[in-house]
Structure formats: C-alpha cells, structure tokens
Amino acid sequence: MDFAGIRRLILTQFRNHARLELDISSKAVVLFGENGAGKTNILEAISMLGSGRNLRSADLMEMARSGEDGGPFAISALLGLGDETRRIGVGLDLSKEGPRKIARLDGKDANPRQLLDTLRLVWITPQMDRIFAGAQGERRRFIDRITLSFFPELSIQANAYERAIKERQKVLEAQNQDRIWLSALEEQAAINGVAIGCARIEAIAMLQKEIDARVQDVFPKAQLRIEGLVEGSLMNGQTIAQIEVDFAKQLSSNRNKDAAAGRCLIGPHRSEIYATHMGNGMDAEKCSTGEQKALLIGIIIAQACCIANGTANSEFGSDFSCFARPNPIILLDEANAHLDSTRREGLAQELLSIRAQTWLTGTDKLLFDAFAQNADFFEIKRPNAAKIV
Questions:
Q1: Which end of the chain has the smaller Cβ count within 10 Å, N or C?
Q2: What is the percent of the chain where pLDDT is above 70?
C-alpha cells in the first residue's frame, strides 16, 4: 500500500455497535447494507479519530451506546504503511467536570495537534449535497474545515476570534458598557479575524490550483471565490497591519447596530463563499442536484490531493515517511447514490489514484462494482454484525 490507512478498526459501545471489529487490507473500504444498520455510525467513529468536530457534529453523550448494556464508547484504529504502524485511540471519559473526549497515540496521551499531524479527515455526507444552494453559513463552515485541514494551527485564532466576538456582544448588551474593554475585544477580534481571512484566501488558492491542474473528467471543475470585509481588503493589496486597524475601527463604529441586532454584523463570520461550474459558467447554486454533487466531489478530491501530496504542508517532501506528514482518510457517506455509472466509475478511478484511504457507504453493493478487486467489502447487518464479502 502506498498510503497510510486503517488496517484494523475496533468500536466498543459506539452508537448501535456494542462491539465491531474490521480488518482492512485495501485503500478502499465499502460498507453496504440496509438503512439503519449502522454504516454511517462507523464513518462517524472514524471521524472521531481526528481533531475538531465529528462528521455529524454530535455531542459526546449522543454517541455512547444507550440501554442497560450501554456505556462510554471507545474507538481504536491501527494505522499502517509497510512496516510502519501507529495506534490511535479515542474514547468518552465521564469525569466530574462532565463528559470529555480523551485521545491516545501509541499508548500515550495525545493532544489535538498530534492527532492532526498523524491523520486528517475529509468527508461528504448527504446533508452536504445542496451546500451550494443552502445557507452561506454552511458554505463558510465547509471552507473553514478545508482551511483547518491545511492550517490546523489556525484553530487557535479561530477560537480566539469567536470568544472575542461573543464577549463583545455581551458587553454591548449590558446596561453599563465598558468602552475600554470593548476596544480591547475589538482589537483582539481584528487581529484574529485578519488571520482567518489570510488563511481562507491561501487555502482557496491552493485548492483552486489543484482543481485547475486536474484533467477535465466526469467531475466538473469549480471556480471558487470568497467575498468579505477582511478578505476583500487583503485581496486589494492592503497591508495586514492596516487592515487590522481598519477592522477594529469598523467594529467600534458598528457598536450601536450590533447591539440592536443582537449579533455582530461584520467580520469573517459574515463572509460569503461562491462557486461556479467552469464547464458551463453557471453559478453552482443554479446547477442541478447531480451537478452540485459532482462539483462537491471534485472539491473534496482536490482537498485530499493537497493534503496527500504535501501541497498544504510544503515543509514535507515526497520522500518522507508517511508518518512525517498527515495522511488523509476520505469518508463518503452515500456518495454513489445519485451518481450514474459513468461517474461511479470515474469516482473509483480517482479515489484509487490518491495517496489516501477511502471509506464509502451505500445500501447496494452493486453501486461499487467499479472498485472490483481493489476494495474491501463489508456487509453491515443488524444487530452489529459485519460480514466480509
């Protein structure tokens, strides 16, 4: 295998799976079976091996198996390439302070950055099928997930920006406003907000370069763009220092409006993301459902390629060990359901050519015939049975 993938996956007390063990030997893994058998739950468990939000953005207690024989969950995965292996484990800890996620890497406590440096997750769920026609907030979160997969250190600035904006709003809604504290919060928001804007622009540029370099195939190319107060200033060539000053001033002058609205009306959290179908020049939101899904898949493949090829991690060379740079795992939940046979075959070819492992779900095994002998197939049955086929 020329990729670092999961060789063994063990779930304990996770969702409907009391105990599930899968031994993997391929870079593509197909989970098929009837609805409600727990296929998506397996993808969600894998997404817990990374840092940040999981595939469903579910609370920890939601994922613990319920019932008399339920309890805190545990997820263990053996990652490997050749003779190299690493073991990742995550679980639910019911401490006095409340439920929390704990992680271990090769038997030692691991922090989120260590998980990210070992493994990065890329996914598509059915809820994302109409992301281009949905709310802007969903597209921002989508782009920000991609940005964080390229620049995980940005999570510090993103959290600091969110805290500053929330605290600022509390002060604005108080009877006696502390203007000195407001100015300090606005300065913090400006510094971290500009960092977010810079990272988004760079991430979109890297993603676009990968998309443009692809040979036109069954998945159309998307032209991405971002519009926002901070991002616009950056793209117009203003210096970061000047943008930070200007943004802080604009936040200050917008206090009354924000207080009346009950939320901050300007900043990176209000930026807008757009995509255009490069083949026909149509805005993605006006494309058919099938074309929107195809555009989305093309973007996700480009994201995985950027991570796998080191584009997003330029300090790593192609001759480095697989564990000297992040290894992407692609999770595709019901992605084949609305694709015709030509696109299903094209998707299989794309996924098998990437230095990544892909996990796919579907109700019918026939949807994955294009993978032929290049995938491990597991029929997921109730209750909690996985049959190798």
A1: C
A2: 93
